[in-house]
């Protein structure tokens, strides 16, 4: 899919991967709407970046997502690409009885439910386009879980499975013009995710600029999955285990 003159929605667009995507895609000739919980951060990004506008959204809240969709359609009329990069990552000890269910569920609500909410609300307009795309950001931890980050691993495994299922449903419906891409990074340097975790417990990361370049290459080739950086190696490690398990 050619990335030029496209109308693109990016969640989590005020920091990290989302912001990097927004800046890069705007710079190469696309119109971008970013979504974020922080109105102040949106204002800051829009102020210093041409071709980027933004609206507040809490992806875990269905009403907020529907409002965000209406704002995006009012501004763009049509949408070509949706990038789900909103996400949070926390380090929880499941044996610690002080950790509340609400805290544990927060990553599921933002990372998994948020992705589902955005995809479900934007899918009808994307299906009407001649060619369109959804990019869901999962993680290398979707395939090789981290004991230090149990809920993040679980949420991203859910994103991986949901993305596969959505792609298959569109295929069986004869709607392959809606490309469904899974972007699989390890941790990305300079993001809010990395700031929230102990570096000794994290997989080797990748600079966001390298990730975005790999992602754009995959998008332009209509890849169904883009494994970036160490995520490639993590998948190679897991694949033999999966094959052996299925064989049993």
TrEMBL record:
The keyword Oxidoreductase applies. Gene3D superfamilies: NAD(P)-binding Rossmann-like Domain (3.40.50.720). GO terms for cellular component: membrane. The keyword DNA-binding does not apply. One of its GO terms (molecular function) is oxidoreductase activity. It comes from the Bacteria. Pfam families: adh_short. Keywords: Oxidoreductase. PANTHER family: DEHYDROGENASE/REDUCTASE SDR FAMILY MEMBER 7B (PTHR44196), DEHYDROGENASE_REDUCTASE SDR FAMILY MEMBER 7B (PTHR44196:SF1). Belongs to the short-chain dehydrogenases/reductases (SDR) family. This is Short-chain dehydrogenase, D-alanine transfer protein. It comes from Oenococcus oeni ATCC BAA-1163.
């Amino acid at each position: 899919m050619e990335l030029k003159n496209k109308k693109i929605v990016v969640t989590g667009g005020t920091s990290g991967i989302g912001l990097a995507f927004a800046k890069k895609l705007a710079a190469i000739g696309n119109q971008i709407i970013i979504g974020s919980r922080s109105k102040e951060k949106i204002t800051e990004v829009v102020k210093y970046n041409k071709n980027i506008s933004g609206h507040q959204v809490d992806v875990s809240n269905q009403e907020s997502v529907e409002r965000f969709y209406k704002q995006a359609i009012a501004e763009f009329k049509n949408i070509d690409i949706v990038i789900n990069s909103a996400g949070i990552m926390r380090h929880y000890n499941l044996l610690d009885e002080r950790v509340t269910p609400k805290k544990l569920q927060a990553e599921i609500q933002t990372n998994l439910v948020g992705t589902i909410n955005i995809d479900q609300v934007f899918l009808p307009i994307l299906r009407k386009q001649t060619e369109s795309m959804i990019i869901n950001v999962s993680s290398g931890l979707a395939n090789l879980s981290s004991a230090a980050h149990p809920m993040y691993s679980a949420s991203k495994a859910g994103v991986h499975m949901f993305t596969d299922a959505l792609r298959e449903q569109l295929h069986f419906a004869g709607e392959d013009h809606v490309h469904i891409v899974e972007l699989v990074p390890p941790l990305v340097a300079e993001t809010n995710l990395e700031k929230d975790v102990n570096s000794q417990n994290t997989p080797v990361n990748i600079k966001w600029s390298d990730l975005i370049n790999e992602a754009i290459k995959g998008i332009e080739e209509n890849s169904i999955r883009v494994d970036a950086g160490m995520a490639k190696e993590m998948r190679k490690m897991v694949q033999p285990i999966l094959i052996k398990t299925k064989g049993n």
